[in-house]
Amino acid sequence: MKIEIVDSHDIGVAVRAARKAQRLRQDDAAGSIGVSESFLGKVEKGAESVHWGKLFQVLEGLGVRVSVDIPEAAGELFASEELKRYARVERAEKRKTAQGKTDG
């Protein structure tokens, strides 16, 4: 089922519904996902200041997929920015590997 997300409260409703559909208590879901019950509660309440990495960890853990509908004109720019991001990540990983070899 696709729903439109307008604000953080909509994400909270989606997360809570996904958790309840799996008949999981909040503490059990949080434990299996690897976040605190407090954090999961903030997400479900639609708190506007949550850590993005943990939010996506919760979404993935509950099987909630996120997609973004961008204007057609932005599609090519998006692809270009993604390539740049992957190149930056790859360079950082190579530096980390090289540093590990010199430290060891």
From TrEMBL:
Domain HTH cro/C1-type: from-to ranges: 15-70
Pfam families documented for this protein: HTH_31
Annotated GO MF terms: DNA binding
Name of protein: Helix-turn-helix domain-containing protein
